[in-house]
Amino acid sequence: MIQVLLRAAAALLLTLCSLLVVSNNGERTMYGHEGLLNDNFLPREQAGWPAPFLVDSPDTSVLHKVGLEDDLRPFNLLASYSFWLLIVLGFFRLLRPRR
Q1: 83-90 long-range Cβ contacts below 8 angstroms, 24+ apart
Q2: Could you state, in order of their start, the residue ranges of all structural domains in the chain?
């Protein structure tokens, strides 16, 4: 039981560490309504890997920086966690001695 919890915690830790991967994959959003459309329709920063699950929100106070106040994409979070859980389970499977 404790091994299952340790592996789940390791996958969660790796998922949270993937927040350090900040990308800009071309998704754009409106960051204001003054001036020309091209001046306000800017790329949106995303964090998380392999599926970005935290996305910069134009409605928050800190623009162009991903933080806890931004939009969370729960299905992408679940996909990223599942990916890292498979990696952790595969790693521990390789470490287990063969019989």
Answers
A1: 83/50, 83/51, 84/11, 84/12, 84/14, 84/15, 84/18, 85/7, 85/8, 85/11, 87/11, 87/14, 88/7, 88/10, 88/11, 88/14, 89/7
A2: 2-95
